[in-house]
Amino acid sequence: MRNNFNKKKISFISLSKIIKYLIVILIFFVLSFFLYDEFLKQKKYKKFLQEFSEKTNYLFTSYEINDLRRVDQSEIIKILDKYLGKSIFLIPLKNISNEITDLNWVKSVNLSKDLKSKITVQILEYEPLGLYVFNNKIYYFSKEGRIIEQSLKNDEEFIMFSGKNVLSHAVEFLNIIRSMQSSKLNNIEEAIFINDRRWNLKLSNQILVLLSEKNIKFSLKNYIKLVNQLKESETLLIKSIDLRNQKKAIINFK
Fold first, then answer.
1. pLDDT digits (tens, 9 = 90+) for 9-44
2. I want to staple 131 with a disulfide (CB 3.0 to 4.6 A). Which of 39, 49, 160, 203 is the partner?
C-alpha cells in the first residue's frame, strides 16, 4: 500500500508541473499574439494617416529656420529633408530635435508645426567665449565651459587659453577683465594657467605678464598703472613684467 501511495503522489506532482508549464506557454503565445496584433494595428494606423494626409494635403512640404551665425544650416536641411512628403501628423519632432541638438554650436532647439504642411525651427546657438588650446589644436569654448568646435582659423577676436583645468577658471578671468573696462587689456593674446593656481599673459607686443596668485584684479591694475607711465618706445624694450609680488613689479628687458 505504501509503495502504491508514493507512486500516485509522484505521478500527481509531475502532472501539476506539466499543467503549470502549459499555462505559461499559453500565456506566452497569447502575449506574443497581442503584441504582434498591436504592431500590425500601429502600421495600419500610420498607413491610414499617410493616405489621409496625401488626400487632404496635410503633408510636410516646407520649413522655416531662424537666422544662424555659426550652425551649418545645410546640416539642418539635410535632417529635415528626410521627412519631406510624409504626413505632418507622423513627423517625429523629438527625433529631429535630438539630431539637431547633436550638431556643433546648437545649445537648444524648439520645433513647432502648423498642423498643415510647415515646420518652424528655432535654434539657440552657443556663444563662443574664448579659444582653448589642447594637443596643439585650438577649440572654441562657451561660458558653460563646453568645448564647441575646433577653430580652423586664427580668430583674433578671442583670447587663447591653455593649462591644466584652465576652462574651470577662464570665465572668471574674462569677467574680471571685462569689469575693468581698460583698453590696456585689449592686447592680451594668450592666458596660460600655471600650476592650476595663477596666470601668465602673453600680449600682442610679445610682453609676458606674470600675475599674482591671490589677487588677479590688483595685479592687472598695477600693470595698467605701470604701462601708463611708460612711453611706447620704452614698452617695446620690455620682455616681461613680473607682478607676482603685490608690492613691486620686476621688469625684464630684451
1. 444 456 666 666 666 676 665 555 554 455 445 677
2. 160
Q: The sheet that has 118-125: what strands, in order across it?
A: 62-65, 118-125, 106-113
Distance CA 199, CA 190 (A): 10
Distances from the Cα of 114 to the Cαs of 46, 62, 67, 92, in angstroms?
Answer: 19, 11, 20, 14
| CA proximity to 172, closest of 143, 213, 201 | 143
Residue 178: helix, strand or coil by DSSP? helix
144 phi and psi angles, rounded to 5 deg: -80, 0
Task: Give residue 236's identity as a one-letter amino acid code.
Answer: L
**What count of other Cβ atoms lies within 10 Å of the Cβ of residue 186?**
9
**pTM for this prediction:** 0.74
Helix axes 73-81, 93-101, angle to 10 degrees: 150
Amino acid making up residue 152: L
CATH superfamily, with its number, for domain 128-253: Cell division protein FtsQ/DivIB (3.40.50.11690)
- Burial grade of 134 (CB within 10 A; 0-12, 13-18, 19 or more): middle
Which one-letter amino acid corresponds to residue 124? L
Tell me the domain boundaries of the chain.
1-55, 62-125, 128-253
> pLDDT tens across 153-178, in order?
777 889 999 999 999 999 999 999 99
- What three-state secondary structure class fits 200? strand
Of the chain, the end-to-end C-alpha distance in Å amounts to 115
Domain range 62-125, CATH architecture:
Roll (3.10)
Do 145 and 130 contact (CB within 8 A), yes or no?
no
Cβ atoms of 76 and 96 within 8 Å: the answer is no
